[in-house]
From TrEMBL, chain A:
GO biological process, any: regulation of DNA-templated transcription
Organism: Xaviernesmea rhizosphaerae
The protein, known as: HTH luxR-type domain-containing protein
Any single Pfam family the record assigns to this protein: GerE
Keywords: DNA-binding, Transcription, Transcription regulation
GO function terms (MF aspect): DNA binding
UniProtKB/TrEMBL annotation, chain B:
Record EC number: 2.3.1.184
Keywords for this protein: Autoinducer synthesis, Quorum sensing, S-adenosyl-L-methionine, Transferase
BP GO terms, sorted: quorum sensing; signal transduction
Protein name according to UniProt: Acyl-homoserine-lactone synthase
Organism lineage: Bacteria, Pseudomonadati, Pseudomonadota, Alphaproteobacteria, Hyphomicrobiales
Record field: catalytic activity: a fatty acyl-[ACP] + S-adenosyl-L-methionine = an N-acyl-L-homoserine lactone + S-methyl-5'-thioadenosine + holo-[ACP] + H(+)
Claim: GTP-binding is one of the keywords in the record: no
Highest taxon, organism lineage: Bacteria
Keyword Coiled coil (UniProt): no
Protein family per UniProt: Belongs to the autoinducer synthase family.
GO molecular function: N-acyl homoserine lactone synthase activity
PROSITE patterns in alphabetical order: AUTOINDUCER_SYNTH_1, AUTOINDUCER_SYNTH_2
SUPFAM superfamilies for this protein: Acyl-CoA N-acyltransferases (Nat) (SSF55729)
Gene3D superfamilies for the chain: 3.40.630.30
Length: 245, 212
């Protein structure tokens, strides 16, 4: 049984070491595996580069044979963890998929044969700028031991996964150009985000409803949004409301 | 019983999710007269498009929706950060992978009518669901923005909140931000606010959540 507290702080220390290069992420994942007694670990991030439609970022400790097999078999099309994980909040327990279809059973069976590990846990990560990621750990432990490990590890891995994600964002210099809105445009958008109609926003801000509509329209254009709801969503994605405070 | 609905299984629950938006309109707009945006009898906001997790309480006998609540991670878009930062002093930001935010907690008004001083089964069920989900995700806390009405319910439900920041009047509603520490003990305390028989049913209901 690894000393969990010690393992956790050792990993956090490595993660927060700014001098380490981004190429060392797979090494880092290997360290996590050995400290926690795991089979493998993987990180898969989207929207983690400067361009809005940039390449996803992948780092794994899986064997190159499995990575090649996965690619040739086009498993990305059926892999339920990839398909569901990015919109999920709850950690995904792989065994929940076994019963769903023979195809998925085969997929996870082959993964185990290639040494990925019989049990898997995937933690979804959500960042503030539309960036999302999946952090996966796997093991060959029996079911009872693994359920116990999962309970003990889960909070640690929620935190480690987020540290790793922040580290990868920093290493990739993620800084997107943020549209500049006037304070009043922002305030109107914010009240719309809170569900207020133009009339109520006007009452709160002490201006006319027409003026509110005007601010919302100029904000919509600046954000390159299709309508006000879209503008609110974009403002949130760009983190504009928080910056304003 | 409780259903956990995320984006990946939302299609399987699409009718209940529509019912939830209608319930939210009845509760927050019609009854509490919050200043929320309602269209076609449904209260939907921008965070409903941000892949939240919903907990739905459904009547075992009738199959009807009786209550719902929404969760969002505090590391992504959420109400406290994006809509209500005024509640927090300047240097305070709630952003952690082990803190999620709950919002839009509501119970069907017809179902909610009960004798004096009793907490409705659906309220207890939803609060238990929040803690259970929190335990499953390894959370330390759930943060919530709520009003005086909810503050009374939390207190009566053995679910004390630690108020953070500064309670502020927003529109006509005194608004608070509070933290709930997630633990097995909290779950037991909340369940214990129900009479024994219902309490037992509540506990029976929970293991199903673990595999949902």
């Amino acid at each position: 049984m690894p000393d969990l507290e010690d393992a956790f702080y050792r990993v956090v220390d490595i993660l927060d070491d700014e001098t380490a290069s981004p190429e060392s992420v797979p090494d880092l994942l290997r360290t996590v595996c050995s400290l926690y007694g795991l089979n493998s670990a993987a990180y898969f991030g989207v929207n983690v580069s400067e361009q809005e439609q940039g390449e996803p970022y992948l780092a794994v400790t899986y064997s190159s044979e499995w990575v090649a097999h996965y690619r040739i078999q086009k498993f990305v099309d059926i892999d339920p963890v990839i398909r569901e994980g990015f919109s999920s909040m709850l950690p995904i327990v792989w065994s929940a998929y076994d019963a769903r279809s023979p195809r998925l059973k085969r997929f996870f069976g082959e993964a185990a044969e290639f040494g990925v590990g019989k049990r898997g846990l995937t933690i979804p990560i959500r960042g503030r700028s539309g960036d999302r990621a999946l952090f996966t750990i796997t093991s060959d432990q029996n079911l009872v031991d693994w359920s116990g490990s999962q309970r003990r590890f889960e909070r640690d891995f929620q935190m480690l996964a987020f540290h790793l994600h922040q580290r990868i964002l920093r290493a990739r210099g993620v800084e997107r150009p943020v549209p500049k809105l006037a304070p009043r445009e922002l305030e109107c958008l914010k009240w719309r985000a809170a569900g207020k109609c133009n009339w109520s926003t006007a009452q709160i801000m002490g201006i006319s409803a027409k003026t509110v509509a005007c601010y919302l329209e100029t904000a919509r254009v600046k954000l390159d949004a299709s309508n006000t709801t879209h503008a609110v969503a974009k403002a949130i994605t760009y983190n504009l409301f928080t910056i304003a405070h | 019983m409780l259903h956990i609905v995320e984006t990946h299984n939302r299609l399987s629950f699409s009718l209940l999710v529509e019912d939830m938006f209608a319930l939210r309109a009845r509760v927050f707009k019609d009854r509490l007269q919050w200043d929320v945006h309602v269209e076609d009898g449904k209260e939907i906001d921008v965070f409903d498009a941000a892949d939240p997790l919903y907990i739905l309480s459904v009547n075992d006998v009738t199959g009807r929706l009786e209550g719902s609540v929404r969760l969002l991670p505090t590391t992504g878009p959420n109400m406290l950060r994006d809509v209500f930062p005024v509640l927090l002093p300047d240097d305070l930001v709630v952003e952690s992978p082990i803190i999620w935010e709950s919002s839009r907690f509501c119970v069907e008004p017809d179902a909610a009518r009960l004798g004096e001083g009793r907490i409705h089964r659906v309220t207890t069920e939803l609060l238990c669901g929040l803690v259970e989900v929190g335990l499953r995700a390894g959370l330390s806390h759930i943060v919530s923005v709520y009003d005086a009405r909810m503050a009374r319910i939390f207190k009566a439900s053995a679910c004390p909140a630690e108020v953070i920041g500064t309670p502020t009047r927003i529109g006509r509603v005194m608004t608070y931000a509070g933290l709930f520490e997630i633990s097995e003990t909290l779950l037991q305390n909340i369940a214990a606010t129900q009479p024994t028989r219902e309490n037992a049913e509540l506990r029976d209901d929970l293991p199903a959540l673990r595999v949902a």
